[in-house]
Design a protein that fits this description.
Length: 271
């Protein structure tokens, strides 16, 4: 289920992608690890339990196209006592990526798995208010922009809660393998910015990635403490991007689910 498109010099994935990720040796890997430039995501095979309404036909977007302040958030856990290499960790992380997610944040990869150009579908629940067990459903997804044997980076489409990148990596530090999640992103529109600031969205996000790393460490029989570092890179609100609200994935997911009975009725008349 590789996204398809006609390559273009104006492609967002080409012009706005981050500098080449580097491995633990500080050397850029082969360009073969990068997804090819695209105009829009096109998916033809959607995993069971996922929806493509906020993925298919969407442009991929960088932090430059987001709305809220630019944040860099880093989460990491030391796998002390585990005799594993960064390559071992990344192999297991990719293979069992959905397993490490908390229940409210389901990832549904394609049959091809975590490979450049593939889409990882997401079915999540965002809190209605801080600490709430109730929330708003969101059907979304991310594209794998880059992948090698020690890391992979995903890029968000228009309408996703954030505009930017998440990089999942494993590296060695002082003889211990470290697993890390690092994001560089802005909220995508005013609704999401309100959610992150006032409705517990930011705290929920940090809880999710801490949970993922805790589960990953547990997979290697390690009870590690997740370290979190949050930095505001640019506090500017990009009001010119308020128009992104048109593609808001929460709004479109709710409307899609509310319209389910009408789609069912329509299907009866097509028989």
């Amino acid at each position: 289920m590789t996204p398809q498109s006609t390559p273009s010099d104006n492609s967002s994935a080409k012009s706005d992608k981050p500098a080449n990720p580097q491995n633990s040796r500080g050397q850029a890997d082969s360009v073969q690890g990068w997804a090819r430039p695209i105009d829009r995501l096109k998916v033809s095979d959607v995993p069971v339990g996922a929806a493509s309404i906020n993925v298919n036909g969407r442009e991929v977007v960088s932090p430059m196209q987001g709305f809220g302040p630019l944040w860099q958030k880093t989460y990491k856990v030391r796998l002390a006592g585990a005799s594993v290499t960064p390559q071992d960790v990344m192999r297991e992380w990719k293979e069992h990526f959905p397993k490490f997610q908390p229940p409210e944040n389901r990832f549904l990869p394609s049959m091809a798995g975590v490979k450049p150009g593939e889409v990882l579908f997401i079915e999540a629940m965002l809190p209605a208010w801080p600490g709430s067990k109730w929330g708003f459903p969101v059907s979304a997804g991310v594209m794998v922009l880059y992948a090698d044997d020690e890391m992979f980076t995903v890029m968000t489409p228009a309408g996703f809660p954030e505009a930017g990148w998440n990089t999942f990596s494993a590296y060695e530090e002082e003889g211990v393998t470290v697993a890390q999640v690092q994001s560089l992103a802005r909220s995508n529109d005013p609704i999401y910015e309100i959610g992150f600031r006032f409705v517990g969205g930011a705290a929920q996000q940090e809880k999710i990635w801490a949970s993922v790393l805790t589960a990953l460490a547990g997979h290697f029989s390690v009870s590690g403490l997740v370290q979190t570092d949050v930095s505001c890179i640019d506090s500017t609100i990009q009001w010119s991007q308020a128009k992104n609200i048109w593609h808001n994935a929460i709004v479109r997911t709710v409307l899609y689910k509310l319209a389910a009975p009408f789609r069912w009725l329509a299907s009866l008349f097509k028989r």
